[in-house]
């Protein structure tokens, strides 16, 4: 598993074998100050522990396997919130789980996953916010509130990750990022960078620089992946 926590993140170019399942994710902490950092760290740590404990036996079982992972991570963060007596602490999750020639999108909250295929960039995650409610009721002047995040009280709310599965193709490029990227950098710029930058590491650097130049108002984390075999 590769993960990026709170703050500014990048990823070095590296080739991974396709025979073994791989999970890449961004955890974006909530709660302000050190609590956000703790929540994102706990999210990454709990995910790694879960994945290291064993993989689903078959492709058909991956969905349930990943849903259980999200429940496990949510519960671990919530227990840490209680231990620290924090008023509010949590993390978003946006991840890509590669298995064979398939990739599962897994997200909780508003961090995002994108796919560049045949020159077109599209979001393959789904924001879990009250944006639709805001539009229906003419509410303006605030950012949409999260309707799901990691660290919710499991006795009150069930964590419901958005999940989808698609076949990978040679040349596919994926971007996983926090809202500190997607809120600051237009999608058309992301598309151009994903199209024109040959190196995935340089692509990440260009995206992070653009987010900082636009004001860098939130945690800025990005991972770029490419299917090259």
List the helices and strands and how they pair.
Elements: E1 2-4, E2 22-30, H1 33-52, H2 62-84, E3 90-99, E4 102-108, E5 112-117, E6 120-123, H3 131-136, E7 162-167, E8 173-177, H4 179-182, H5 187-196, H6 200-213, E9 222-226
Parallel strand pairs: 1-2
Antiparallel strand pairs: 2-3, 3-4, 4-7, 5-6, 5-8, 8-9
| H and E order | EEHHEEEEHEEHHHE
- How would you name the oligomeric state of the polypeptide chains in this document? single chain
Strand order of the largest sheet: 1-2-3-4-7
From the spread of the alpha carbons, the general shape counts as globular
Question: Which percent range describes the beta-strand content?
Answer: 15-25%
Separation of termini?
A: 20 Å
What is the arithmetic mean of pLDDT? 90
Major beta-sheet overview: 5 strands, mixed
Poorly predicted runs are: 1-13
Number of helices: 6
Radius of gyration: 17 Å
Secondary-structure content class: alpha+beta
Q: Into which percent range does the helicity of residues fall?
A: 25-40%
Q: Please tally the β strands and state the result.
A: 9
């Amino acid at each position: 598993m590769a993960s990026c926590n709170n703050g500014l993140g990048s990823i070095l170019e590296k080739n991974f074998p396709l025979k073994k399942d791989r999970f890449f994710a961004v955890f974006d902490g909530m709660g302000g100050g050190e609590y956000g950092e703790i929540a994102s760290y706990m999210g990454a740590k709990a995910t790694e522990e879960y994945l290291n404990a064993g993989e689903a036996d078959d492709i058909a079982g991956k969905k349930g396997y990943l849903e259980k992972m999200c429940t496990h991570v949510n519960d671990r963060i919530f227990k840490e919130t209680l231990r620290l007596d924090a008023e509010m602490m949590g993390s978003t999750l946006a991840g890509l789980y590669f298995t064979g020639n398939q990739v599962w999108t897994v997200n909780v909250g508003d961090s995002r996953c994108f796919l560049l295929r045949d020159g077109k960039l599209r979001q393959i995650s789904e924001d879990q916010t009250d944006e639709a409610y805001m539009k229906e009721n003419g509410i303006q002047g605030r950012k949409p509130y999260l309707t799901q995040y990691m660290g919710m009280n499991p006795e009150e709310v069930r964590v419901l990750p958005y999940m989808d599965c698609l076949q990978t193709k040679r040349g596919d490029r994926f971007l996983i990022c926090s809202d500190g990227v997607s809120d600051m950098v237009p999608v058309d710029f992301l598309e151009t960078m994903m199209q024109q930058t040959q190196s995935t590491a340089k692509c990440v650097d260009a995206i992070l620089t653009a987010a900082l130049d636009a004001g860098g108002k939130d945690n800025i984390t990005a991972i770029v992946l490419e299917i090259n075999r």
